[in-house]
Amino acid sequence: RKEVEQDPGPFNVPEGATVAFNCTYSNSASQSFFWYRQDCRKEPKLLMSVYSSGNEDGRFTAQLNRASQYISLLIRDSKLSDSATYLCVVNIGGYSTLTFGKGTMLLVSP
Amino acid sequence: GAVVSQHPSWVICKSGTSVKIECRSLDFQATTMFWYRQFPKQSLMLMATSNEGSKATYEQGVEKDKFLINHASLTLSTLTVTSAHPEDSSFYICSASPGSANYGYTFGSGTRLTVV
Predict the structure, then answer these.
(1) Residue from B105, B112, B113 to probe the interface with A (highest A Cβ count within 10 Å)
(2) How far is B110 from chain A (nearest CA, A)?
(3) How many CB atoms lie within 10 A of CB B102?
(4) pLDDT tens for residues A14-44?
(5) Residue A88 · residue A71 · CB < 8 Å
């Protein structure tokens, strides 16, 4: 089983749509969870951290279910500029490394 | 805050030559930096962990004699791809964090290496 698994893509949605990405992780000792965004041929950029209580940042909502080892990202009212690859990232804590999912590509069309 | 600068952004080199990539933390000190490699349509794969003042820790399958890492100061880590081959062509990215990884990491802008 892969350490971090994400929905296969690409997701093609029209502007204004709501889209949800799912991610599962295998290491139950994982402590920190993030969603990163990566544009084509660019470096990943932190989109948001994911907290146990769930958190929202504008049109983006992240959820964490530790029991099921499951993370989600919801994007409401999709914009063309949301088109990118979304990476689910997990860390087991401290100064250890990040483990990346393969990413899910989102394509928002007019 | 937490800016990581990576240089060069892209490089084309001939087979057999060596290429050095620099990663700098501009506004914080980083005792640990990470080097990743990403092939087209693939996820980022950790190559090695660079530790200031000590030897780097390499991931399984990464040749330490081919990918030389030097972390001589708290703000600079370098990755040298020695005797480069076309299969080394990839997107190399470094990252660091001003604190615990619990706050996420900041990435450099990446270096696109093409070996011809």
Answers:
(1) B105
(2) 6
(3) 16
(4) 999 999 999 999 988 888 899 999 998 899 9
(5) yes
